[in-house]
User: What shape does this take?
Amino acid sequence: MGPRLWLAILLVALTGFFCGEWHESRASNAQRQAADSAAKLELATATGRVREVERQLSQNILNIDEARTKEQDHANATIDSLRTDVRNGALRLSIATRAHDPGPVGADPAAGDPEARAELLPSAAIALIDLAADADSTVRALNACLDQYDAVRRAVNP
Assistant: This one.
């Protein structure tokens, strides 16, 4: 066999080898592209689900905020009416006190009025109303915060 024959055999062998590598490379690329496409589709589907949950959660939080605002507005109207009634004298607030009557020694402590009432000045009554209104408002805000937290928790961990 001459050098040309060996060269031809070598050329055919190399061509066969590179053709096989080329086909294998194309098949590998096709598999990667198919896996890539499947991953992109899965990502798009998951993103859509997350966006829907996010939309629902935003709506739930908005509903909670609206309910709290309505409740706060109603409470403010009630408190304003109460303040007005106290200022105008239509409503008088009093507190229970213990009657201080030393009486004679040996007198029966169960006898008589064990509880007396002391009327509050309007300014003191309004100060107490304001204190209670602030506390109630804070409780409503904390309850709304807990409701929002619970809504998020349920959305994240169904």
